Amino acid sequence: MHLLSSPARRAVLALVCGAALLTTHAAHAADAWPSRNIRLVVPYAPGNAGDVTFRLIQADLEKRLGARFYIDNKSGASGNIGAEDVARAAPDGYTLLLGATNNFVMNQYLTKGLRYDPLKDLVAITKVNLAPSVVVVNTSLPVNSLSELTAYAKANPGKLNFGTPGNGTPPHLTGVLYAQMTQSEMVHVPFRGAPPAVQALLANDVQIFFASAGISTVAGHLAAGKLKALAVADTQRLAALPNVPTTAEQGLPELRTGNWWGLAAPVGTDPAILEKIAAAVKASVASPEIVAKFNELGLSGVGNTPAEFAAQNAREAAVWQSTITKANIQVE
Questions:
Q1: Kind plus residue range of the DSSP H or E element containing 189
Q2: Residue pLDDT, tens place only, 100-151
Q3: Is the dihedral of CA 59, 65, 68, 72 positive or negative?
Q4: pTM of the model
Q5: Helix, coil or strand: residue 136
Q6: Closest Cα partner for 233 from 258, 213, 208, 216?
Q7: Using alpha carbons only, what angle is made at residue 219 by residues 148 and 48, rounded to the nearest 5 degrees?
Q8: Rounded to 5 degrees, what are φ and ψ at 189?
Q9: How far is 142 from 156, CA to CA, in rounded Å?
Q10: In the chain, which ranges are continuous DSSP H helix?
Q11: Residue from 213, 50, 240 nearest 128 by CA
């Protein structure tokens, strides 16, 4: 057996002690967090769906974490400006991103010259909520199920228009994905936001709308019988639309889309801080009061772990990369 010399033993001991001190310091840093207000960057103008849904849980979340959030609306470039701001921020747990689906798994394939990679430069914390896509059609369309819509679309190539809030938005990509999956041909008609797209649907200028930011823009029209909901693009029905079957129930289980909002932090943020935030969000969105409020909006709370959220993002990103590449979609 070869024994280390005294200098070597001292060097090894110093390395071991140093590692222990770093571990102890990291643990204390996580325990001390948060000690001041947290900046929450929302990469869209005030009043967006992220603002609305986060404010529903904000007070409860602040009590659980013991710190105040202040929302910093940093809009522009389909959310890329705000998301990049967070990606370049100090990884200290005091700058977080509240981003939507496209900020995490779509924009990097739609936008040329994006200066950050959301899967590499941001670390996932938790998905806050999900608004699954709802396939909504004009009542004049002679279909009453997803399979009937598919058959009609395939029998009438290029004759069905689907309206969206704009090019590259989740409803646009959902329509493209549906057409690719069913090998049908439909015409995309982009509008400047969801409300004008819904008005065009009511006027039968477009025949299909893939609602994916909650059902608030179509709920009243569905209740009045002016529009028809054919499917919820998820594995579970919406509490707000209990009689509308899912895509899984109707033979198209791979069509699981929607708009969701999730939290992320700059890469390098202490994992213990991320876990603390995720646990607080999970508890908050599971409270009966929040569940009831989310149900009214056609949302469901999630609150998964950082590892689960990161894995979901990787899977979804692969789907959207393939969809976007096949359709050759680009956003200026």
A1: strand 187-190
A2: 999 999 999 998 888 899 999 999 999 999 999 999 999 999 999 999 999 9
A3: negative
A4: 0.85
A5: strand
A6: 258
A7: 115
A8: -125, 105
A9: 12
A10: 6-32, 49-65, 80-87, 101-105, 107-110, 118-121, 146-155, 170-182, 194-202, 219-223, 271-285, 288-296, 306-327
A11: 50
> Which amino acid appears at position 61 of this protein?
L
Residue 294: Cβ within 10 Å count? 23
More confident residue, 145 or 7: 145
**d(C-alpha 221, C-alpha 194), whole Å:** 14
Q: How far is CA 193 from CA 32, 165, 202, 276, in A?
A: 43, 4, 15, 36
End-to-end CA separation in angstroms for the chain: 68
Which residue, among 318, 272, 267, 265, has the nearest Cα to 40 in the 3D structure? 265
Structure tokens at 321: 């990369």
Amino acid, res. 70: Y
Which residues is 136 bridged to in the sheet?
Answer: 209, 229
Whole-number Å distance between alpha carbons of 28 and 124: 22
Q: Which amino acid is at 249?
A: E
CA atoms of 145 and 222, how far apart (whole Å): 15
Residues sharing a CB contact under 8 Å with residue 314, sequence separation 6 or more, in sequence order: 119
pLDDT tens readout for residues 193-240: 889 999 999 999 999 999 987 788 898 999 999 999 999 999 999 888
Could you give the domains of the chain? 36-131+259-327 (3.40.190.150), 134-232 (3.40.190.10)
